[in-house]
Design brief:
The protein is built from 3 helices and 12 strands. By secondary structure, it is mainly beta.
Length: 174
Amino acid sequence: MSQAVTIELGEGGEHDARALRNAFGCFTTGVTVITTLAQDGRRVGLTANSFTSVSLDPPLALVCVDLKSSSLGALDAAGRFAVNVLHADHQALARQFVQKGVDRFAGIDTETWRTGVPILPGCMANFECETHHVFDAGDHRVYVGRVVKLRYDPDHEPLVYLQGRFRRVHVDAE
């Protein structure tokens, strides 16, 4: 049986950061690819697991992006983005959108909807958003988007992330 770890956080430091990362890693998240367009028309995308609904009325969702992300400038300038929710068969796609120094869209067909940002077809869900509010929180920038169009296909098993690894959800038969 495992032993629970209790740590009182101090003034930061590597030990605190590792403990906090390990504790946050105990929360299972979905996996998404955030997409937008750079000012020069180039498609920009990144894998993110910091995504959540905020409000139904108005329809708002948020994503959090590391301040060191190379996609930050494009997200700031675009004023719009899409959240593409991945399913269990999309592990390779999730890995493709974390690679550095490559065209992350290589070999991927995309759609465009109302705002023109790239939409990844075949996802479990897609949310096209116009940026509603942006603010910095610690080492991340929070983008709250107003959902203007969505698509969902709940007949897929979600791709989830837990304790630093992709996982599958076990669903009990009814």
